[in-house]
Amino acid sequence: MILKMSISTASTAKVNLRTPEVMAVVQAQVEEHYRSEIVDRLRNSGGSLTYGGLTIRLAKQFGFCYGVERAIDLAYAAAKVFANRRLFILGEIIHNPEVNEQIAALGIRNLIPPHQEAEVEDLKAEDVVIVPAFGTDVKTLARIKELGCQIVDTTCGDVMSVWKRVRQNANDDVTSIIHGKATHEETKATASRAVVAGKGHYLVVLTLADTDYVCDYIRKGGVSSDFLQKFRGAYSEGFNPDLHLQRIGVANQTTMMRGETEEVQRRIESAIRERDGLEKAKDSFRFFDTICGATQERQDALRDMLASPMDLLIVVGGYNSSNTAHLAEMGEGKLPTYFIRNATRLESREAVTHFDQHAKCEVTTKDWLPEGPLVIGITAGASCPNNLIEETILRLYALHGIHSSELLAN
């Protein structure tokens, strides 16, 4: 986890957060909080552990990605370097409750609902504000700069690549259709960059059903008021489907499923070709692959693991983590899958509490753990630390009557 940047603001000199002294402390803290001996052992032994009739298989790619590690390192470094100043963060640094609790324990206060502890307007010039890995919207960032605060920007590079594309769309009078969740921090940040200097428009679509509705409108037109009502809260100010679906560029929230984003792109391109013809469509449609590499690696690794027989799958991570939710979605189509926040949800052999993505809440499933020799797969999203994966593994063995000391001794 090597930091390769300096942090600057509009009103202060550059501050280097990657001095050897600072990074030595940061890396020691991060390892203490998140490292796992069991996970390291599994990784080094091919991702499989068999003991006492239970085989645990760990996906080849799982847990923290580089962008998440970098964001956490920067937050810890900021707490060290700016120990004598007030520190704030624009929401959750990543979508994992345990990690966000650790960030709060460093004395970093939240500025954004639902865990808001202060308002942006409460900031003073001497305050330090951390921008999380998802980024933030243009208006909020501009206001913080106007107030003169020190900004520590941990925005993921993959997210900024999407911003570059939607800004170009705006400059070229191309509407950005963003495949993602309209309420997600990353998508809101991206949408704010799809409208620059009074130019540009955006529309957010989440599902293929949303996409098909847009495609029907592209082909045949429709009642604009009905369109706007359907996508209320998911389009730019002044958006008019009769005007702003003429030239389209497809972008995406970086943590979506690649196959689904590609299908969104394919369907919209097909509709534009039907409306405009092949030649004109070359000018009225554009698409760039902006799926996060780490997200895709974790999806590919799970797909490979699902090709082998397993009795069930455990997915560990924050319930509001989009990339983690997609892993659970992949598992549900193949075998019994339980999406858990942490090991405490594995209550007993008779009961597991897990997140139901359809009901959008935790539910409890009875008699979930079969008797006899078992093969259990485990994966985790890019925002899940290794220590939570270890706790899950140890809990599964404990449910089989194997104490952690016995497991660690072998």
Keywords:
about 400 residues, alpha/beta, Cobalt-precorrin-4 Transmethylase, domain 1, Rossmann fold, 3 domains, five-stranded mixed β-sheet, four-stranded parallel β-sheet, 16 helices, disordered N terminus
Global mean pLDDT: 92
What portion of residues is helical? 40-55%
Strand order of the largest sheet: 1-2-15-11-12
Kindly give the count of domains: 3
Tell me about the largest β-sheet. Answer: 5 strands, mixed
- CATH class membership of the largest domain: Alpha Beta
The CATH superfamily of the largest domain is known as 4-hydroxy-3-methylbut-2-enyl diphosphate reductase, catalytic domain
- Alpha-carbon Rg, integer: 23 Å
Topology:
Blueprint: H1 20-34, H2 37-44, E1 48-51, E2 54-58, H3 66-81, E3 87-89, H4 97-105, E4 108-110, E5 128-131, H5 138-147, E6 150-153, H6 157-171, E7 175-179, H7 185-193, E8 202-205, H8 208-220, H9 224-230, H10 241-244, E9 248-252, H11 258-276, H12 278-284, E10 285-287, H13 293-306, E11 312-316, H14 322-332, E12 337-340, E13 351-356, E14 361-366, E15 374-380, H15 386-399, H16 404-408
Parallel strand pairs: 2-15, 3-4, 3-5, 5-6, 7-8, 7-9, 9-10, 11-12, 11-15
Antiparallel strand pairs: 1-2, 13-14
